[in-house]
Specification:
The structure is a single chain. By secondary structure, the protein is of the alpha/beta class. The chain has 2 domains: 106 residues, no CATH class; 199 residues, 3-Layer(aba) Sandwich (Rossmann fold). The longest helix has 16 residues. Strand 6 and strand 7 form a beta hairpin. The two termini are 30 Å apart. Helix 1 runs antiparallel to helix 2 and helix 4 packs parallel to helix 8.
């Protein structure tokens, strides 16, 4: 992203790279991304106007080439404020992009194998911080968090979907017990507070059910035994929708570190979705509602049979990166 224009580059294995200069300045793009985030987070707002404007800038110029190449999966390497944009929630005037494509977001192309085969076992470790009224100090700042009562039902629902699921709730979801179990499961679902800290991405953190937290530096040190096809962070937050956005590196940072220590793919929410809408989303995502070849679309958003418009505020929160085979 330059001050006076957006530069898009389409790279495929079947054609030379194609460059698309887009006439939108950084200030206008930033303002539109903020409006988009606010509309997605507010259930009384219609995000389609800003979703379509972003589609017109980011996807529409590539449409003919995408069609000619037969593209079904888009690997997105965003810059700046575009890191806050879940592509699945863009709108072409007729459909949400989640209905047309699956998506992966690059964190570090040199360290991500997008064709990595999933583990043979399908086992789930689901952890929740339901009684989650805690404070976390980061430098001179204190972040206060409240209870997430719906997360208990969320992980219990997942346990019903996948036999043999290990559930950790509240004080059972502590650093020692969680780390002891990390290497045993191919799917890790964390329904807990997390914060992507803009301006200081290493301080981005996840909260355990006993009030302790773990930041990016500690993840690198303590989670080396992680060997998961997929890690889902279902209650994280970013600055999306606030008046001032960073450059989005904090969003990439957490996903990158989780992939670096052993996750093939990561799906993280950009804002909290801790209500009954999450239950429908997770039922479709983990419950095998789609054939495996189409589950990438599930990772990006709505499960099969869902009215996308009615739940866009839920599935639009998800941003994913890593191996498309893992999800």
């Amino acid at each position: 992203m330059l001050e006076n224009r957006l530069e898009l580059v389409l790279i495929s294995g079947d054609a030379p790279p194609v460059r698309y200069p887009i006439a939108v300045d950084a200030l206008t793009l930033n303002r539109t991304v903020v409006q988009f985030g606010q509309a997605l987070k507010d259930r009384n707002s219609d995000p389609r106007p800003t979703a379509q404007q972003l589609y017109d800038w980011v996807i529409a110029p590539l449409e003919n080439d995408l069609a000619n190449l037969g593209v079904e999966n888009i690997i997105f390497a965003p810059d700046g404020v575009l890191r806050y944009v879940p592509l699945a929630a863009l709108y072409d005037g007729d459909q949400w992009l989640v209905e047309r494509f699956s998506f992966n977001q690059i964190t570090a192309a040199s360290e991500t194998d997008f064709a990595a085969a999933p583990r043979a076992d399908r086992t789930l470790l689901a952890a929740a911080c339901a009684a989650c009224t805690f404070s976390v100090d980061v430098g001179d700042d204190t972040f206060d968090f409240g209870d997430l009562p719906a997360t208990r039902q969320e992980v219990e629902l997942l346990a019903d979907q996948i036999p043999g699921t290990q559930v950790l709730i509240d004080r059972d979801f502590n650093p020692q017990q969680f780390q002891d179990l990390l290497s045993r499961y191919s799917l890790i679902h964390l329904a807990t507070h997390g914060l992507f800290v803009s301006g200081n991405p290493d301080e981005s953190f996840l909260l355990f059910g006993d009030g302790q937290s773990i930041n990016l530096r500690q993840i690198r040190r303590d989670w080396a035994q992680l060997d998961a096809d997929l890690v889902v962070l279902s209650a994280c937050e970013t600055a999306l929708g606030s008046a001032e956005l960073g450059n989005g590196v904090e969003v990439l940072g957490l996903g990158f570190q989780l992939q670096r220590v052993g996750a093939k793919a990561v799906v993280a929410s950009l804002w909290k979705v801790s209500d009954p809408g999450t239950h429908a989303l997770m039922t479709g995502f983990y419950g095998g509602a789609r054939p495996r070849a189409d589950q990438g679309r599930g990772a990006a958003g709505g499960p099969g049979g869902v009215d996308y418009q009615s739940v866009c505020h839920h599935w639009g929160a998800a941003a994913g990166g890593g191996s498309s085979q893992a999800t």
